[in-house]
Amino acid sequence: MALAKQTIEQLAQHLESCQLQMRDTHKITDDHPDMDWDDAYAIQDAILASKLARGARVVGLKAGLTSHAKMRQMGVTDPVFGFLVDDYSVPEGSEVATRELIHPKVEPEIAFVLKAALKGPGCHIGAVLAATDFVMPGIEVIDSRYRDFKFDLKSVVADNTSAARFVVGGRALRPSEVDLRTVGLVLEKNGQPVALGAGAAVLGHPAAAVAALANHLGRRGQEIPAGSLILSGGVTEAVAVTAGDSVSLRVQGMGSVSLRFA
Ligand code: 0L1
Ligand code: MG
């Protein structure tokens, strides 16, 4: 690691206070160009520790930047991984308070719920499908703490991959009931289609993003626990939303899930 423990704690506190006070900041690698991957995930871990100390619960995990559309949109080349806490979970069809966010965007995703733990290295799509209880549509609300969503990969990892809110809903299907490569989806904003795609846009198969998460955790001596909810990453580019917008995601054969922004 390149950064001192105290610097990691300070950066975690800085990013979390930006989140809690709805304030943006420049990317942290501007001030710490030597920051390495271990530092980036250590900052993310310190943010999580601070949330857990205040009574938050981890309710899921996420992979981000898993589609070429997202990678192109953000000018990066690799997936990233983060956590989801209970505060981020929004009931299906309910309202998200835009005043609690900086500059939210929505992403259409496939969510996985596991019936068995997954541990890398060597985790693959087959292992993920065998360990999956069901899959369902999900919308992730991302809200980078970085000004104008301008960041590099290490800065965005430290910022818990822009995680802010999410909703899952629609029809839960066994993985054998749907071909997640060819399944089509449409994201609508205020009744108009704004992004469309198919599951294969996520690393060739959304389960590959879950395998990548298990392999990432395996390198750190961790696993994805049984029962976990995992957001596998935006199928399309992210779409900006503001107060007054309604967003709905329809996934072929899996129904729809929606959110309103107040
Ligand atoms: O979930 C995601 O794909 C977001 C990852 C972080 C990058 C971003 O803020 O777009
Ligand atoms: Mg996402």
Automatic annotation (TrEMBL):
GO CC term (a single one): cytoplasm
Keyword Ligase carried by entry: no
Keyword Nucleotide-binding: no
Matches recorded under Gene3D superfamilies: Fumarylacetoacetase-like, C-terminal domain (3.90.850.10)
SUPFAM superfamilies cross-referenced by the UniProt entry: FAH (SSF56529)
Any one Pfam family match given in the protein's UniProt record, by short name: FAA_hydrolase
NCBIfam families with a match to the protein in the record: catechol_dmpH
Protein name: 2-oxo-3-hexenedioate decarboxylase
Organism encoding this protein: Melaminivora suipulveris
Gene: dmpH
